Amino acid sequence: MPDRPALQLESVGLQIGGARILHDVSFEVATGEMVGVIGPNGAGKTTLFNTISGVMIPTSGRVLLAGDDVTTRKVHQRARVGLGRTFQTSSVFPGLTSAENVRMAAQSKLGGATSPWRFPRRDDGASGVADRCLAEVELGHHAGTEAGVLSHGDKRKLEIAMLIATEPEVVLLDEPMAGVGSGDVAGLVEVIRRLHGSGRTVLMVEHHMEVLLGLVDRVAVMHHGELLAIDTPKAVMADPDVQRAYLGETV
Ligand SMILES: Nc1ncnc2c1ncn2[C@@H]1O[C@H](COP(=O)(O)OP(=O)(O)OP(=O)(O)O)[C@@H](O)[C@H]1O
Predict the structure, then answer these.
(1) For the ABC transporter domain, which residue ranges apply (predicted)?
(2) For a FRET experiment, which of 86, 99, 134, 201 has its CA 20 to 30 Å from that of 155?
(3) pTM, two decimal places
(4) So what's the ipTM on this one?
C-alpha cells in the first residue's frame, strides 16, 4: 500500500470573473477510503468535482493523485493515471445494449477504437471485461438490453460498470442516487459498497443524506465555496457550524 494519499487538494481555489467559486479548499483522501461531499445548493460541490477531474483548472492551489501533481492535466490524462468519474446526468448511449456500452468503455482503456459504430472483435478482451463489469453491478441479466429502456437505478449501475471497465483507482461519483426510484436505492447502495469494498478510493457527492451517511468513512461539508468541516459522519452531524450552514434544511 502506498503511504501517499490517493487524492490531495492543497488550497484549491477557483475564481470566475469576479466570482469566487472555490476558496482555499484543502483535504486528503486516503487510499481505499470513501468520503462523501455534502453542502447546501450552490455550495461548490460540482465545481469541486470539476477541478478534481480536470473539467475545470483551479486558479490557485494544487490537485495531486497518489502524490502526482495533476492540477493542469486534462480529463483523459487524469483518467490514464487512475481517476474515473460519473456525472449527475446519465452518460450512457441509449440505443446500445448494456454490454455494448461497457465494451466501449473497456475499449477506451484497451486503447482501441471507441466509436459506437465500430464494435470490438469478440477476442480483443473488451467483451470479457464487459461481462465481468456487468456481473459486478448485478446487471448480467441485462447485457443484451438497450440501455435506453433500463430503469434509472439500472442506468446508474451501468454507468458504474462503464467506470469499472476503465480500471480507476480513484472514483468520483456525482449524485449516484439522483432520479433513482425508492425501489432501486438498496441495490445501488450495495453496488457502491462493493465498488469501495474492492479497494477503490471513492469520493461521492450525494444529496440523499441517509444513504451517504451509511456508506462513507468521512464527510466533507462545503459551504459558500469553502470546506466547512471534514470528519466522521457522527462528528460532522454534531458540528454546530454545519447545523448553522443547513439552517432551514434537513440534514
Ligand atoms: N461557470 C460558472 N460561471 C459562474 N458561476 C458558476 C459557474 N459554475 C458554477 N458557478 C456558481 O458557483 C456556485 C457553486 O456551483 P456548484 O454547481 O458547484 O454548486 P453545488 O454545490 O454543486 O450545487 P447543487 O447542489 O445545486 O448541485 C454557484 O453559485 C454557481 O452558480
Answers:
(1) 7-249
(2) 201
(3) 0.89
(4) 0.94
